């Protein structure tokens, strides 16, 4: 047993010796053992990282591992803005550095010679504009003093490497260099008082948001405010009287022609082919008669109470729907009536062998005109629109004012901010003239309803409401056309040209284009007026026997016809006089303009 041991201590002796030793010594040995194991693992990991294909030698003769190469790529690519980046993985690299510090000088020299790199202290570096050369120069090597001065690091220290033990102040980013900004911009050094005094003496207070105008801008302002409104209103008023003249012609001239034609046929007792004018008059009279009969069968009181039961918002919606439909029917009826007059001309001038064809064509166009003018326009549009306006005027909850404001401003919104050509503005003015005449016919309808059904003093409030309607309509038309002309760069002289074309149409002179003529079909308003005036005459007839009633009916009809004929003559002659004067004035003005 003694020979087998050979002078060595047996295990229990070793254990006894260890047990007798100092416990602090044992703890120190254990810690040293654990540290050596940890150090060995980290060195093995560093050895495997040195064999990583991503590791590459630096240009200064050193080498770098993978994460330093990635940092060099990042810095070389200029990635990131200003700031500093810690180029490491904190825990692993610090552990490797501690391990290498604890190694012996021989192990450090051997491993440094083999691996071609060692780890130094971690530091922040600016990667704003770095490159691979800067990264190689920033590789940190452990100081010779720390190694004991015996063995130097195999990696040569970079010549331009600063003292890494001194903490340098980070460079200031140029965009945040307040002193440099203050030095470059002297305005920032001003005090608030000096800035305010400079603003007070520095010209127009709105110079930053407005520009200085010129003579053209000044002329546009005066055109919008003064020159264009009265020209526009004059054109609309002349168009209104042209529509009124056409309306009176339907009620006075057309019945006289029909009576003369019938008298001629009864007197000669032989049938002669009718002229184009006579055929057209008979077609219009048939449309007017059927429309009056159809409205006579309509219960106006029922429709009135149905509309009156609606709220203000529903009333506004109903009025707008009916107004849009009324405008569509006006346009369609104009085309239908032109078709009817074309067939009337063909029937009057056709040869005898094609008479049958033209008769059937005229009958079909006549049926279409009756359906379009009566069923669509009268029942669903004009009559309902007149009843709705009557409801608003009679109501005591300011429904008329709300209706006018909402409807008129909706009209401004739908027209002002659109692009218009000169021809479109020309047509728009004519539409406004026709609309104003339709409103006048509806007001006559309201007047007749008040005469029949109103109780108490109503005429004063009626006049106030009518004045409100006309003033609102006039103001809205002026605002609309003023800003349409402003936004579309249309001069006020254009409205004078429109008025000249309308005067030429009144004088039956040939204009440049038939599309510029004012198109108005007075059949629907005439039917509405006749329908509401008939009960007024009936209510004022004296309660006499039938022969006397017929006498009073003929007398009232004759008096009405004479009044309408006198009004027709007055308006027609006034329009022709004005048209002749204005056309001559325009010719003289153009003549002087060409001479100049």
UniProtKB/TrEMBL annotation:
Annotated localization: Membrane
Entries under Pfam families matching the protein: DUF747
Organism expressing this protein natively: Glycine soja (Wild soybean)
Keyword Transmembrane belongs to the record: yes
Superkingdom as given in the UniProt entry: Eukaryota
One GO location term (cellular component): endoplasmic reticulum membrane
Keyword line: Membrane, Transmembrane, Transmembrane helix
Region Disordered: start-end pairs: 1-62
PANTHER family attached to this UniProt entry: TRANSMEMBRANE ANTERIOR POSTERIOR TRANSFORMATION PROTEIN 1 HOMOLOG (PTHR13317:SF4)
Transmembrane intervals: 458-476, 518-538, 550-571
Compositional bias annotation for Basic residues: 27-42
Bilayer topology: Multi-pass membrane protein
Subcellular location, principal: membrane
Name this polypeptide is given: Protein POLLEN DEFECTIVE IN GUIDANCE 1 isoform D
Basic and acidic residues: bias regions: 43-52
Family: Belongs to the TAPT1 family.
